[in-house]
Amino acid sequence: MARSFSFWPTLTEPLIRQNPVTLQILGLCSALAVTTSLATALTMSASLTVVLTLAAGIISLIRRHIPTTIRLIVQIVIVASLVIVIDQVLQAYLVEISRALSVYVALITTNCLVLGRTEAYASHNGVVPSMVDAFGNGLGYSLVLTIIGGVRELFGRGELLGRQVLPLAEDGGWFTPLGLMLLAPSAFFLLGLLVWAIRSVLPEQAEAAEHVPPATAEPAE
Amino acid sequence: MIRGLWDRETVASLLVAAHLPLALFWLWYGGAEAVATVLLAALVLAGWHLVFLLARAQPPSLSGIVTALAVAVLVPQDLGAVRLVLGISFGAVMGELVFGGWGRNVVNPATVALSFLGFGFPAAPWPHVMEPVAWAALATGVLGIAAGIMPAGVFLGAALLAGVAGAAGALPAEELLAGGLVLVLLLGDPVTAAGTALGRWLHGGLYGGLLTLFALGWEGGAPVQMAVAAALLASLAAPLLDEMAITLWLARRRRRHGGT
């Protein structure tokens, strides 16, 4: 609790080095489901960041009053209340996107990323550090969603945020959309490639090998 | 395979040799366009093998030639060079090279490339299988089994299922030709076929069964498309089938010899 708090590392560590999606592989369900277009990915990112930051603040504020035995229930109640508020706001002002996101905004409640941060950090740290940490993690999640959503929309439809970027072949351009990008497997491929790329640059993130090949190498022939 | 004549590249070169009749017939009927496609595929594969040789010290393999042939024979038509390169790169890298190269992969890179192109560009028409090419595939299969490099059980299992389905009238000739060609080109790969005797029969049987199912119920699917989809699903199931075969074998052993 009395750990020294430095603002900048807490905010920037979760962006790449401790990224909740690519390093801890949390919150994948929504990350893969809502990234068919950049607009839904951005909305989802914003919703999750807001919920996570507010939830972390509230939980940190009352952390000494939450009985340990029921702390998860309390945390989920707080997160769920915030999610309902966000969901209502989206339905009121962004009907189209809210429809495209379907249940995934409501499912922020059970996003392990949210519960992971509130349980692991906010319930042991002060309000400001907790909110900074939560905001950083939200930004890390947003970064991944934005990249995957952007790539999928760009190569799946040739658009970005609904605006035509690559001229389609059927309208006289040269680009033929890659239909696979709009299907669920492509999100897995892209996330896998992203994790691969990050771990190539930062080898300390790579996990230890599960199997070691036998030491006797094949003789060169 | 550490000692003696049989190392990985022996198998790969024998595979290439066994594919010669199929390749010759297909090139004979395909003409210049076929030659260009297979050369492009081989070039792309060679490039990726080189990249992984330099980046991760994975020795390149002659099996790339077989992969290039399989992709070129079965790939949807009118894709153009860019999309072809994209699909083959995806298949080679994600299907084979990230696992450590040929011999460690779970699915055949050609199957991955074809599925990628099929799902990614559903509008492209699938090729028609010419009858002489399918007969040449039979010759390739016989050569492969005789040399001991292709899984006989897979072929026999698939042939059994296809025979039953054909006799029942569930498998039209077109699907049968495409199925046979895909069987030799994609399922004949010794690396990704099941490894146990029973597993191989089941693997072939599953492929034949899936193909029959698709032939009966897939509205608007091209024969080659059905065969490639069946090959993809069957090769994904192959490790499971091996596991089942090993479990059965262990159980039988335990019953026979006792023990805990």
TrEMBL record, chain A:
It comes from the Bacteria. It holds the Pfam family Rnf-Nqr. Keywords: Cell inner membrane, Cell membrane, Ion transport, Membrane, NAD, Nitrogen fixation, Oxidoreductase, Sodium, Sodium transport, Translocase, Transmembrane, Transmembrane helix, Transport, Ubiquinone. It is a multi-pass membrane protein. GO terms for cellular component: endomembrane system; plasma membrane. Its main location: membrane. The chain crosses the membrane at residues 45-62, 74-95, 101-122, 134-155, 175-198. InterPro entries: NqrD, NqrDE/RnfAE. GO terms for molecular function: oxidoreductase activity, acting on NAD(P)H, quinone or similar compound as acceptor. Its EC number is 1.6.5.-. One of its GO terms (biological process) is sodium ion transport. It is an enzyme of class 1 (oxidoreductase). It is found in: Endomembrane system. NCBIfam families: nqrD (TIGR01939), PRK09292.1 (NF006777), PRK12405.1 (NF009070). This is NADH:ubiquinone oxidoreductase, Na(+)-translocating, D subunit. It comes from Wenxinia marina DSM 24838.
From TrEMBL, chain B:
GO terms for biological process: transmembrane transport. The keyword Transmembrane helix applies. The chain crosses the membrane at residues 12-29, 35-55, 62-86, 106-126, 133-164, 176-194, 224-251. GO terms for cellular component: plasma membrane. The keyword Transmembrane applies. Keywords: Flavoprotein, FMN, Membrane, Phosphoprotein, Translocase, Transmembrane, Transmembrane helix, Transport, Ubiquinone. This is Na+-transporting NADH:ubiquinone oxidoreductase, subunit NqrB.
